[in-house]
Amino acid sequence: MSETKVMHELGHTATGRAPCRWRMLGGMTGLALLLGCSSPAPTPTAPQPSPAAVEAAPEPILTREERLERWLDEGDRALSADRLLSPLGDNAHDRYRAVLIYEPENTRAISGLQAIALRYLDLARSAAARSAFSQALGYLDLAASVDPGNPLVADFRGDIQRQQERLHSASPLTQDGQVVQLNGELLRQRADRLVGELHELARRVRDGGDFVLIVARTDAEGRWVYQQMRDGVPGYLLRGDIKLGSPPRIELLPPLE
């Protein structure tokens, strides 16, 4: 192969790069040293931190005041979200108590604990309005554990106990002629005492063949009364109707012809 052809084949590549420079060494025919044919060196890049290194980065060191302020803010957010005593480690009570360990007279933390107790007091009032007295007393126990000695909690506990005593002494049914008044509180809590009285009333209705008109505050309440009466006379077709009204009662009407 001629020297000119060697120069041509070494100086041009299939990728279309510029010709490589070469020169003959020591006059030795057929030997050539190619110059400038290596690829350019890559541009160095700055090393990137690994995800583990990023996650392991320490949190900034907070001053005592900054840490207490963070706990107070977290307590306020938990209180607004009704995270009062739970979940564990992420509730308003824990944050306010942590502040009081360092500053026993911190007024914002003390007010936060009082707000938790008042929230439980509101829940207790709502439960008592539904005659769910056991649930109401449970909420009061939680309020007392957060803010011992709160007079509002003690007063409402007394109110609930008096309501329970009145309900215990009240008659489930009061009959005046052909109208049977239902105890509204016992009806609201679906008390067992009322169920027994409805069973007895249903047996009297069966014997007299009366038609019953159930007057209830809600449709669900009326259907519950009718179902209890039916359960009291198995196999008997209790004839009756339901209408909305107050106070809750059962009107006994002459049998239909």
Task: Give a written overview of the molecule.
With 257 residues, the protein is α+β, with helices and mostly antiparallel strands. The chain folds into three domains: 3-33, no CATH class; 64-167, Serine Threonine Protein Phosphatase 5, Tetratricopeptide repeat, CATH 1.25.40; 173-253. 52% of the residues lie in helices and 12% in strands. The protein contains ten helices and seven strands. It has helices at residues 3-11, 51-55, 64-80, 92-102, 107-129, 133-146, 151-169, 184-188, 192-208, 219-232; strands spanning 21-24, 32-35, 173-176, 179-182, 211-216, 240-244, 249-253. The strands form two sheets. It has a five-stranded mixed β-sheet. A two-stranded antiparallel ribbon has the order 1-2. Helix 3 (64-80) packs antiparallel against helix 4 (92-102) and helix 6 (133-146) packs antiparallel against helix 7 (151-169). The termini are far apart.
